[in-house]
Each structure stands twice: as C-alpha cells, then as structure tokens.
Amino acid sequence: MADNRPIGVFDSGLGGLTVLKELEKVLPNENFVYFGDTGRVPYGSRSNETIISYAKQDENFLLSKGVKYIVAACGTVSAVAAHTAKELPVNFMGVVENSVKAAVSATKNQKIGVIGTSATINNGAHKTKILELMPNAKVTTADCPLFVPLVEEGFSDKDDIVVLEVARRYLAPMLEAGVDTLILGCTHYPILLGAIKKIMGENVTLINMGNSTALAVKEELTALNMLNEDTTIGNKEFYVSDLTASFGKISNILLGKKIENVNLVDISKYEGSSNRN
Ligand code: DGL
Fold first, then answer.
1. Number of domains within the chain
2. Checking CA distances to 196, which of 24, 145, 157, 168 falls within 20 to 30 Å?
3. Catalytic residue among 63, 74, 104, 227
4. Which is the closest atom of ligand 1 to the Cα of 117?
5. From its phi and psi, is residue 110 left (phi > 0), alpha (psi between -120 and 50) or beta?
6. What is the pLDDT of residues 84-117, one digit of tens each?
C-alpha cells in the first residue's frame, strides 16, 4: 500500500541538508519535511543530556507534521540520542549505523577512521558498532570542531590553504594509523570532500553518511510497502527555529540550491512526549 505522508528529516541546523540532498536523489518522489534547529545549533559541543532533550523536541515537531518516518540527519544526534527513537510511533533511521556498515564492507586492511563533532567522537557509537561487526578492526577517531564553522563561512575549496592546513592537522592520526576507509561522521564534511581527499589520498575510501543512509531508508520503506507511489517530484517543506541573516548563504552551500520558502517554529513548544506512542 502506498503511503503519501512525508518523511521527516531533522538536524541541529542546516547541515542535514547534505543528507536531504542524498535522500532526494534516491527517493525523488517522496515528500519531505525538514526541520533545522538553527536557533540552538551547534549540538556537537553540548552535553549528552542537552542533545537528547533537543532531539526529542525535534522529533515531536516532525510527528506534529504527520510524518511516516523520521531521519536524524545529524551525526551528533545519531551518535548520542538514537535511543530516543525507541519511543517513537514511526520508524526511525540515524546516520551512524549505515555508514558503519558501508565502512566495514569497504575496508580491506580493517583499519577504519571516524571523524565527527566532539560529542559524536566522545560518545564512541561508531567505534562500538564497527567492533560489533568486525571485532579485529583497528578504529582511529578524531573530532574536527573547526570543520563546521569553516564550511559555514564558505571555506571549503580543496586548494584553500586554510582548509588544507586544518584538514592536515585533524587527519594526521588517520594517515599515521594507515586507515584505508574514513567515515565522514558529520553533516558538513561532504562539502570538504575535495580537501579531505587531497590529504588522505585517492586510495582511501571516504564514506558519505547521507548516501548510505538514503539507500537504507529506501530499502526499509520498500520492504514496509510504504513508498509514495505518486510519480511526480515530491514536495519539500522547510522549518527552522531561527531565521538568521546567513540562512540563504549556508543553505545554498549545504543543499547546493536556493530554498524558496522557509517557516519559523517555536521548538520549545514541542516539549515532553505527548506526540509519542
Ligand atoms: N549536524 C552536526 C553533526 O552532524 C554538526 C553541527 C553541530 O555541531 O550541531 O554532527
């Protein structure tokens, strides 16, 4: 049976647009509701308690929009707060699990690197899941807190000396460990793909969490018989918790196109668990 309800996608801010971009490619006919918590971004430097309470509100907002499925398009939420999804009345997908599966099947030398925000790396979710699937794997992790502001300030060119120098410093432990596969565990990192590739070399496989997640969402919706069978291009609705002057510039960098309509939400109203179960 077709299910025309939208897929809900949320992130701490606009970074999740890189995941939405992959979802759109793989599921062009689906309707999407995107929520970016731009009033409270970044999540990556916050405590687990705060990230969990924010994630619950974000999920409650999407439930109020009648979504059939929720994607946490945020590395930090997926690493720290994925367990909050157990209480949801709809299926849920984070970005950790499928990027880990993709990395485990890509590696030849069982040396896998993971980069993400400080909260993601301190949480260790990727490492735990890699070792579950590949107990002999050697996992090297590094947080890269300057990558997000660099991208949002428009510094992403693979030949930019500032970008390359920051990347060289953050990625040094990956080169030292000889990883042949690197998980880009944060929404903004695909924008730095060229620079990261330049430092890591052509032979290291870079895992785009948006792409692996989008393929998994499609697989699950197909198995559940919940795809939208309308063959026209799906609708997209965009919501944010603060409309900043930089919205246009940053969304353009991350989505690669202009967002025409965006709505403001008072996310603090979505407290508690009233929409759940
Ligand atoms: N969206 C976040 C992530 O993927 C990065 C920005 C933030 O720290 O909130 O981890």
1. 2
2. 24
3. 74
4. 10
5. left
6. 888 899 999 999 999 999 999 999 999 999 999 9
* H or E segment to which residue 129 belongs: helix 125-133
Q: How far is the CA of 249 from the centre of ligand 1 (A)?
A: 17
SS3 content of the chain, % helix, strand, coil (to 5): 45, 15, 40
Query: What is the model's pTM?
Result: 0.95
Based on the fold, state whether residues 263 and 201 are members of the same structural domain.
no
The backbone torsions φ and ψ at residue 258, rounded to the nearest 5 degrees and listed phi first, read -80, 140
pLDDT in tens, 1-41: 689 999 999 999 999 999 999 999 999 999 999 999 999 99
Q: What one-character-per-residue DSSP string does 155-176 give?
A: ---TT-HHHHHHHHHHHHHHHH
Report which ligand 1 atom has the smallest distance to the Cα of 116. Answer: 10
Known catalytic membership, residue 144: no
Residue 105: helix, strand or coil by DSSP?
Answer: helix
Residue 233: domain span: 7-94+211-270
230 CA → ligand 1 middle, Å: 33
Q: Is 272 exposed, middle or buried (0-12, 13-18, 19+ CB in 10 A)?
A: exposed
Q: 189 CA to middle of ligand 1, Å? A: 10
Which candidate, 59, 62, 12, places its Cα nearest to that of 37? 12
Q: Is the CB of 58 under 6 A from ligand 1?
A: no
148 lines ligand 1 (CB under 6 A): yes
Smallest Cα–Cα separation from 194: which of 162, 160, 157? 157
Ligand 1 and 115: CB distance under 6 A: no
